[in-house]
Design brief:
alpha+beta, 7-stranded mixed beta sheet, elongated
């Protein structure tokens, strides 16, 4: 009886293929420079930080994405002359005073707000979609109205007294004011003043009278020098990043803040998880003395004895099909167990199914996709019915093997014992 009998079967196979390939992934065999991830806390100026922070200088290429980062976008630390600096939106530099990872908050201060008469001449804003925000529980605001002239019908709010701090007074020809949020009177401030700046600060006890002499002289400066807090929202993580971190991986993002891939501690790159180095063991690329490339699966926490392991290997080794990757051999040394497979240099089907490893479009054409779907179906049908020992698969990994549309790594278990689950990239 033929494998495919009707257009309905065709549609089902194509849908199955798309469900396999839709999770955009990285190239089979991809690795990364592990130095880009902070495996241990890094110290700068007596301040220690670790993932999801990263050193801004540690950007590397990941799966053809230049200057990718290992951590959350926007919280890269620059260590400048042993001083930790955070660049907000990559523009303004702020000195990092402390990091509270348990509260997802960073305390920072504007280096311009130094001296007894500080002034700040830039607003602090976050771009839409930024991971950073001002926590309402700890942040308030000061308004700085600098170099104001009330001419041509512009009325100066009354009563309102300007800053008397000498350094500020000598810098401008007009009047300057510093007012707490909630104490700003109605007025044409944007027309009267050369600069209108809203500065985040830590919540503080507002003076009963913003015209207080001490406030207008130096007290406002104390508030500015304390700095303010910013927080990062891990809810911005895409599902792929969450899955990556749940599997002990680290999330990589590109220059525009889009999730790239999952960086695993063994130097491998994966789509969204590091399961290959977790529950069933890591997979390594290797070669024989004659140069033949192989994939070595190191089994982890294998519960049966050596005899059962050899029996399982014997069952798997009897599989032989053009659409199933060949088991070459095994290794048994005490408690250590390894399986050896052919290495697939052309990589994962994910690499070819969609343009630029994204969900944007089909680059292979429907005829080729149909051929691949048929290859997957034949491999499944063989495992279920054709081989000597019927194998129940838990996961499959479509990979490309030369001219064959798809070669399929057997994953899952025989009827007796779990043997292999190659669901990740080498």
């Amino acid at each position: 009886m033929p494998l495919l009998q009707s257009p309905h079967h065709h549609q089902l196979l194509l849908l199955f293929l798309l469900s396999v390939a839709a999770s955009h992934g990285v190239a089979f065999g991809a690795t990364y420079d592990s130095s880009m991830c902070l495996s241990e806390p890094y110290s700068c100026g007596g301040l220690s930080f670790s993932y999801p922070f990263y050193r801004s200088s540690d950007r590397k290429d990941v799966d053809s994405n230049e200057n990718s980062l290992c951590g959350y976008p926007g919280i890269g630390i620059v260590c400048d002359d042993d001083k930790p600096i955070l660049q907000l939106d990559g523009v303004e530099n702020y000195t990092v005073k402390s990091i509270d990872g348990s509260r997802a908050k960073v305390s920072i201060a504007d280096p311009e707000a130094g001296g007894s008469c500080p002034r700040v001449e830039h607003n602090v804003t976050f771009a839409q979609g930024s991971w950073l925000a001002f926590p309402d529980s700890t942040v308030d605001y000061l308004f700085l109205f600098l170099d104001c002239l009330f001419r041509q019908g512009l009325v100066r709010p009354n009563p309102l007294h300007e800053i008397t701090c000498p350094d500020v007074v000598s810098s401008f020809t007009g009047y300057s004011f510093v007012l707490p949020n909630g104490s700003v009177p109605v007025g044409n401030w944007s027309q009267a003043c050369r600069l209108v700046i809203r500065v985040p600060v830590l919540k503080f006890d507002h003076p009963a009278d913003p015209n207080d002499d001490a406030w207008r002289n130096t007290s406002y400066g104390k508030v500015l020098r304390q700095g303010f807090e910013v927080s990062w929202d891990s809810n911005n993580r895409p599902v792929s990043c969450t899955q990556c971190e749940d599997s002990n991986g680290r999330c990589a993002y590109n220059q525009i803040g889009a999730f790239v891939s999952c960086l695993c501690t063994n130097g491998q790159v994966n789509s969204d998880h590091c399961s290959g180095q977790g529950g069933f063991g890591a997979v390594y690329r290797g070669s024989f003395s004659d140069g033949r490339q192989i994939a070595v699966k190191m089994l982890k926490d294998y519960k049966t004895d050596g005899e059962d392991f050899i029996n399982e290997v014997a069952s798997i080794s009897r599989t032989s099909h053009v659409n199933v990757v060949t088991l070459i051999g095994f290794c048994l040394d005490g408690s250590k167990r390894a399986l050896i497979y052919d290495h697939m240099p052309n990589g994962s089907l994910e690499k070819y199914a969609f343009k630029d490893n994204s969900e944007g479009g089909n680059t292979l054409g429907w005829e080729k996709l149909f051929d691949i779907a048929v290859g997957i179906a034949r491999g499944l049908e063989y495992l279920h019915r054709g081989c000597n020992t019927r194998i129940v698969h838990f996961d499959i990994k479509p990979v490309v093997q030369g001219e064959v549309p798809v070669a399929f790594v057997p994953g899952g278990c025989s009827q007796e014992q779990l043997v292999l689950s190659l669901t990740h990239n080498l």
